[in-house]
Amino acid sequence: MSRLVLATDAPGGNAEIFASLQGEGPSSGVPVAFLRLSRCNLACVWCDTAYTWHFEGDERPHRSEPTFARKANQVTLDPTEVAERIAAFGQSRLVITGGEPLLQAPALADLLDLLPDIAVEVETNGTTVAPPRLDIRIDQYNVSPKLAHSGNPAELALLPERLDFYATDPRAFFKFVVAEAGDLDEVLALRARYRIPAGRIFLMAEGTDSASLRARQQWLAPLCLEHGFRMSDRLHIHLYGDTRGT
């Protein structure tokens, strides 16, 4: 059985497995169990979970200069132990996030075999897809393609065959992080190219504090109204701030 590499809830702390309210996307406000995995194949300059990938020796840019000690911010566990911790929360829904969780697809499939009765959301950057053994257990994909302001080259972040796959899967909702109004041009171009239904598109303001989110939502809301998109807040930021394990 493969092992899972998880983020920790503090440097040198426990594995980031917790119960909370889903803060973003179509399930916002729903009580869930969360599993945060470590490692990512992209590097967003504004990423608020850089401790899952921006380790010592990683020269990819991030707006906060310090890197993180890998040993203090990662923990490796057997799927059996992870499943027991998730089940103990008694939630009917599990959100698997990261990092990029689909990088650990074999171990995730082992985990979900042990949790047959829980509904599963996967938060992904949309650059990879789950193999059949894992895909059959996924009830919802929250796909967040990275726009140019993320700092990721389009040839790494926006893979046509992957976006085609998710655009045609009714389980997939698209959540675009928007930092300024001009970012909408990229969203509209991607929507047109991949024929993504407007009702499956969320626009979410970039920000890690309530004031920044509220300021951006003032101009984001009219754009959603104009184009028929849904707007996602970041409920966990308002409730708990930019903290781990929430």
CATH architecture: Alpha-Beta Barrel
CA distance, first residue to last residue: 29 Å
Q: Specify Rg, calculated over alpha carbons.
A: 17 Å
Quaternary state, please? Answer: single chain
Counting H and I runs of at least 4 residues, what is the number of helices? 9
Helix content: 25-40%
- SS strand fraction: 15-25%
The fourth-level CATH homologous superfamily is Aldolase class I
**Overall tally of domains:** 1
Structural class category: alpha/beta
Strand order of the largest sheet: 2-3-5-6-7-8-9-10
Largest sheet: 8 strands, mixed
The SSE order reads EEEHEHEHEHEHHEHEHEH
CATH hierarchy class name: Alpha Beta
Mean pLDDT: 97
The gross shape turns out to be globular
Report the strand count: 10
Low-confidence stretches: none
